[in-house]
Amino acid sequence: MKIKKRTENVNNNRQRLIFRGKINKSNTSLIIWLIFALLIVLIAVLADVIVPYDPYEQDLSAALMPPDSHHLLGTDQYGRDMLSRVIKGAGISLSSSFALVVIITLTGCIAGIISGYYGGIIDSIIMRLSDIFLAFPGLVFAIAVASVMSGGLVSAVIALALISWPKYARIARAEVLAIKNEPYIQVARMSGLNTIRILIKHIIPNIADIIIVTAVLDIGNMLERRGLIQDAYVFLAQSYCYEAGRKLVPGSYDLTTDMNAKEIMNAIVTQSSQTKDGE
Fold first, then answer.
1. Whole-angstrom Cα distance, residue 205 to residue 261?
2. What is the C-alpha separation between 160 and 146, in angstroms, rounded?
3. How much is the pLDDT for 114?
4. Backbone φ and ψ of 110, nearest 5°
5. How far apart are CA 71 and CA 82, in angstroms?
6. Cα separations (Å) of 101 from 36, 37, 119, 164?
7. 3-state SS assignment for residue 136
8. Residue 1 to residues 4, 7, 10: CA-CA distances in angstroms?
9. Residue 252 pLDDT grade (very low, low, confident, very high; cuts 50, 70, 90)
10. Looking at residues 70-90, what average pLDDT do you find?
11. First-to-last CA distance in the chain?
């Protein structure tokens, strides 16, 4: 009997070691990328402290210098240190994307929870409103809204918020519809809890996991979409504020100081009409 127990213990220990080995191997890449992501966030947070040079200071005598011991990534056409500008731009890009995700998550979840819990005419109004925003091509609608608001980083964030909140509203609504008639919700109603306490204590905690996962995954997505908007039309980068997406459109500020959004759109339409007439 003792030998059998020892054999079983040895087998159990082997299985645990094998299982731990599998977990460690599968988590290695996750840990590496997590460290990399945390490093980027840390650099972005400490951007003002760790930048070697002023990212806005111009030195035309050092323009377009190759990487060396003083400028690890070289300089741009105005002699500004590229490493300093990349670090500073990372902070602005990540902070604006995070703010955007927070805005659309809160707005969409509040609308979705109200729509799913109350139903009826409130549900119809909110869902039809979301259908209106979803009916437009996302990036085209965002570019149009940002151009009407005269461009800039804040305009791009607001424009993307207008087209992105319906996704969270629909997710929250679907989750609320799935649980609002569960027995524990009915018991909470029968016990005398008001709607606010039911939502805070029973509804929101049960839908928070999928909302948080979606929001975290959307940070990179919003960073990319906001960059696409600013790259598509140079008039969306009219401020002196440097951010990562704006490096792809050098000289855009010089153009936008002389032409506003309406003039640029008129020029594009005129050129398109002339091309069609020529054909």
1. 44
2. 9
3. 94
4. -60, -45
5. 7
6. 21, 17, 26, 9
7. coil
8. 5, 10, 14
9. very low
10. 86
11. 95
Sign of the Cα torsion 175, 181, 182, 187 reads positive
| Mean of pLDDT values over 210-225 | 86
Distance separating alpha carbons of residues 104 and 235, to the nearest angstrom: 24
User: Rounded to an integer, what distance in angstroms lies between the CA atom of residue 58 and that of residue 114?
Assistant: 52
Q: Mean per-residue pLDDT for 122-129? A: 93
Cα(2)–Cα(99) distance, integer angstroms: 63
DSSP code, position 200: I
* Residue that is written with structure tokens 């992105």 in the block: 164
Hey, which residues does 81 pair with through a beta bridge? 75
Cα separation, 25 vs 8, in Å, equals: 26
| φ/ψ (deg, to 5) at 191 | -75, -10
- From 219, 240, 243, 221, select the one nearest 231 (Cα to Cα): 243
Q: What are 115's two structure tokens?
A: 């729509």
Model's pTM, two decimal places? Answer: 0.69
Q: In whole angstroms, how far apart are CA 137 and each of 108, 160, 233, 255? A: 19, 12, 16, 27
Residue 139: pLDDT band (50, 70, 90) is confident
* Interval 230-247: pLDDT, tens: 655 544 444 444 555 444
d(CA 225, CA 146): 13
Q: Is the pLDDT of residue 172 over 90?
A: yes
Cβ neighbour number for residue 134 with a 10 Å cutoff: 13
Cβ atoms within 10 A of the Cβ of 34, count?
Answer: 11
Give the Cα separation of 100 and 159 in Å (integer): 10
Residue entry with tokens 């869902």: 127
